[in-house]
Specification:
Elements: E1 2-5, H1 9-24, E2 40-43, H2 56-66, E3 75-79, H3 87-98, E4 104-110, H4 118-121, E5 125-127, H5 132-135, H6 144-149, H7 151-155, H8 159-165, H9 169-185, H10 197-212, H11 219-235, H12 240-253
Parallel strand pairs: 1-4, 1-5, 2-3, 3-4
Helix pairs in contact: 2-3, 9-12, 10-11, 11-12
Length: about 250
């Protein structure tokens, strides 16, 4: 999932049109014209409320149109003016952002990313206009997985994950207890709006295994499923240390 922050609404819309045209190798002048493409979904305003807020009902309708389509279909979904999503609608969207179908690109376009929940911000790849030409290329069966699965690894320095995975089982336990769980407990209330230490580590670990898909390492698929399950458990309030230790145990001993 990508987060595109452009304050000016016209410039933001122009950037979204450029992305859509690049992904589908078309030349639409207006983004609404792209609705004719089966794999494209777009939400910018509420059709169900009397305000400019995008509510839960709007999100549910959007998900029915978008996520329930065939998972074999390459898809692009854009929520423009995502800063107008209510807290409730962002929470309704969160689980689906974590469990995007295969061959899927989702973009949240905002004027101010600070209006998005920290849990959403921590899961997104933050874009600038200058990134568009480098990341989004005409959608083909060969190139699309690169955009979806490997974008995290292109944006993040994952050397710390590589070093972590080379540690012994015991040393990994020590690391998570001191450097991840331990550091989080030391955070002050002032820092609560920043990315969660445990979730950040798991997302980096997830990005590492996603990057291996490019190398056709099928074994990474099981690891990806394991880590995604761990993130869902965190959302349900399962003990963070227990989640991390279980994932490490499975990485070492299957």
């Amino acid at each position: 999932m990508y987060i595109l922050e452009i304050h000016d609404p016209e410039q933001r819309l122009s950037a979204l049109i450029e992305i859509t045209n690049r992904v589908f190798d078309t030349s639409f002048e207006h983004i609404e014209d792209a609705r004719i493409i089966h794999g494209f979904s777009y939400l910018a305003t509420s059709t169900l409320t009397k305000t400019n807020k995008i509510g839960v009902a709007d999100v549910h309708l959007f998900k029915k149109i978008y996520w329930l389509r065939s998972s074999a279909q390459n898809k692009l979904a854009i929520i423009n003016n995502a800063h107008n999503l209510t807290t409730e609608s962002q929470n309704a969207l969160l689980k689906d952002l974590e469990e995007e179908p295969d061959h899927t690109i989702t973009i949240l376009a905002v004027s101010d990313k600070r209006k998005l929940l920290p849990t959403i911000l921590s899961r997104g790849i933050h874009l600038k206009s200058s990134d568009i030409s480098a990341i989004f290329t005409p959608l083909t069966q060969e190139k699309f997985p690169d955009i979806v699965y490997n974008a995290h690894s292109k944006k993040k320095d994952l050397q710390h994950i590589d070093k972590f995975l080379n540690l012994s089982f015991f040393d990994q336990l020590v690391y998570i207890n001191k450097q991840i769980v331990g550091k989080k407990t030391q955070q002050s209330k002032v820092m609560q709006d920043k990315e969660d230490q445990v979730e950040s580590f798991l997302h980096d670990l997830l990005s590492y295994y996603e990057s291996l898909l490019e190398k056709k390492e099928i074994s990474s698929v099981a690891m990806i499923a394991l880590i995604e399950d761990g993130l869902r458990k965190l959302e349900r309030g399962v003990n963070e240390r227990a989640v991390l230790e279980y994932i490490i145990l499975k990485i070492h001993y299957g």
